[in-house]
Amino acid sequence: MSFEINWENLGEDRVINDSLKEFLNSQLQAIDLPSYVSSLQVTDFRLGEIPPNIILQEISNPLNEFYEQISNEKRASSRRREEPNAKEEFAENTEQVCDSLPSESDLQFLVEIDYKGDMQIDVSAELALNYPSPSFMTLPVKLSISDLGMHVLCLVAYLSNQLFISFLCDVADPVLDARESIIDPGNSIFLGKKGLERISLIRSIKIESEIGEQNNVEGSVLRSVGKLEQFLLEAFRNIVKTEAAWPSWINLDFNEDSSDDDHDYDELQR
Amino acid sequence: NRKFCQINAILEKTYYNVDTHSSESLDWFNVLIAQTIQQFREEALQKDNIVHSLNDFVSRRSAELPQYLDAIKITELDIGEDFPIFSNCRIQYSPNSNKQRLEAKIDIDLSDRLALGIETKLLVNYPKPFAAALPVQLTVSIVRFQACLTVSLTTAEEFVPTSGNNTSCDTDYGSGYFLMFSFSPEYRLEFDVKSLIGARSKLQNIPKIGSLIEYQIKKWFVERCVEPRFQFIKLPSLWPRSKNTREEKSENDDISVT
Lengths: 270, 258
Known about the structure:
The complex is a heterodimer.
Chain A: E1 4-5, H1 8-11, H2 14-29, E2 37-46, E3 53-60, H3 64-82, H4 87-97, E4 107-116, E5 120-129, E6 137-159, E7 162-170, H5 188-191, E8 202-210, H6 219-244, E9 250-253
Antiparallel strand pairs in A: 2-5, 3-4, 4-6, 5-6, 6-7, 6-8, 7-9
Helix pairs in contact in A: 3-4
Chain B: H1 2-13, H2 27-46, H3 50-60, E1 73-78, E2 85-93, E3 102-124, E4 132-154, H4 169-172, E5 178-183, E6 188-197, E7 203-204, H5 207-225, E8 231-234, H6 251-257
Antiparallel strand pairs in B: 1-3, 2-3, 3-4, 4-5, 4-6, 5-8, 6-7
Membrane topology (chain A): Peripheral membrane protein
Region (Disordered) (chain A): 74-94
Family (chain A): Belongs to the MDM12 family.
């Protein structure tokens, strides 16, 4: 433990839990649902009472990729502002000021996050029963995800008043065996961008489902629920992988001009 | 040109040729400065609670700390035991002054340990204030300072304050003489930064932390007294006055004290 975490203030905070719920829901919205599910929604999110254990591993300068993103965004927004007139005149001037240059006060932490807490996510779904005929009936199902276990390395960079958070790999990932500095940009973690090449970031996860009493004995219903559980697990793993794991990151902007969105998860997929 | 003639007359009448005069040692000055510093150190040490009073000072001003810092506690203070050595003093025309101003160039060298140790916490205020805290222990010491010092005596007319918000100095800075000093940009300032970061599992002496601190101190220094910035200090009147007159204690007084 390097960080002293004031978890009592966080775990039960309604605003934080709700904003995480919204984030997950917006992610679920983008997923193609299989034929046996008709709606999928997070109904409750609780961070729980057990905090993660966070150990600081390294402090360094932020990676170039973060500067590139800020530069690209600045370029994009300055172009937007110039439009519709006087486009050409400004183009040359802005080209120079767009680059986000490293400042001496920028910082990047490499942290080890060990989580084995009691976070719980409740999900509601409509299960479509396709037997004996397609959409024969729909059943409301409640699922709960719990017992999430993670032990990962994570980058937290602070530059230009923005925070970048990106999960790198599981602490037991074989890429770490080479004992090269993990923040070396030539490291295989940064080059190997295909998720499958790495150990899953989620070590353990448990999912339980609840459906109406009278259907508990029906084999086909149980099978579909099993399929739904599997589907949800995969979806959950994918959200973590594509939204928060390198080469993607969660970007929090603390600049005042970003007031257009209260809790803006500027998730970026590249 | 009147100014130019004045300066030439001064140089002539003080037997100083800026081109041929050899540089002087400032040994006498070093001794007097060392005495002054020594006295200052003794005063500081006599109130052995100097760390205490500094802590009081810091805690009184804690409201001014940035949001990401917890209260600062001073754990160590080393005011050093060596003295600066000034040498190689010469007079020259100020560059870019068109030979209208004179200045003294002096080399300064200090090898000492001036250290400040602090303890604080880096606060993580997201997603809520005080969500997490990272304990930080730092000891910053200056171990070497080498620079070329420029000193001149001048009037206020040719200079502007860098911070334009102080109107009070208009009256103050209008007349009289000022001591102006500045360091050349090729100075050498060496630090020794020790850091310990983390609660139970700690990181020790991270280079990035050292360079971060060094950068901040050098920035502070450069913004105040490295060319083209000057420190500009009003000199008091040296006209003999009765309220400034003292004499040595008589022997009787000495005996009665001991």
